[in-house]
Design brief:
The chain has one domain (3-174). The chain is built from 2 helices and no strands. The protein is rod-shaped and about 195 Å long. α1 packs antiparallel against α2. It is mainly alpha-helical.
Length: 175
């Protein structure tokens, strides 16, 4: 190999190395661009992480407030349970009172029936006896006044019928 061949060989080799260096420069430029893009992405990620940290802090505050609210609700529910228990006791007492009142009303109704029966059986007999005595007195008076007995009997019967009619009206009004 001659010097010129050697030189040509070296030039060829240098051209290949130059091409490789140019290719490496392009690769390095691409890497620099990629690194710059990664730096931008990292900056964006840092901003996002900072935003997330703020959001997490807000969420923690909200959770703390919710915990307080839940504790308040638990207290309210406990109070309501106590109130319901008291109301149940009151309702039980009211039921007992109503049952007692019902018993008293039943007793009062029975006593009223007894009084009415007594009145019909005893008082009316007494009134009839008095009426008969009255009839006798009226007869004497009629004899003295010369009023016929038949007229007075009719009057008494009318009175008795009027009393009976009053009782019938009362029963119809009550019934």
């Amino acid at each position: 190999m001659t010097d010129s061949q050697k030189l040509d060989y070296l030039i060829e080799q240098m051209t290949g190395v130059k091409a490789e260096i140019t290719e490496m420069k392009e690769d390095i430029a691409g890497l620099k661009e990629d690194v710059a893009g990664l730096k931008e992405d990292v900056a964006v990620l840092k901003e996002d992480v900072a935003g997330l940290k703020e959001d997490v802090a807000v969420l923690k505050e909200d959770v703390a407030v919710l915990k307080e609210d839940v504790a308040g609700l638990k207290e309210d529910v406990a109070g309501l349970k106590e109130d319901v228990a008291v109301l149940k006791e009151d309702v039980a007492v009211l039921k007992e009172d109503v049952a007692g009142l019902q018993e008293r009303m039943d007793k009062q109704e029975n006593e009223l029936r007894y009084i009415r029966t007594f009145q019909e059986n005893n008082l009316e007999k007494g009134i009839k006896i008095i009426a008969e005595g009255h009839v006798m007195l009226l007869r004497r008076l009629n004899e003295a006044l010369k009023i016929t007995e038949d007229d007075e009997m009719l009057r008494l019967r009318v009175n008795v019928l009027e009393c009976d009619m009053s009782r019938v009206k009362e029963k119809l009004a009550v019934g």
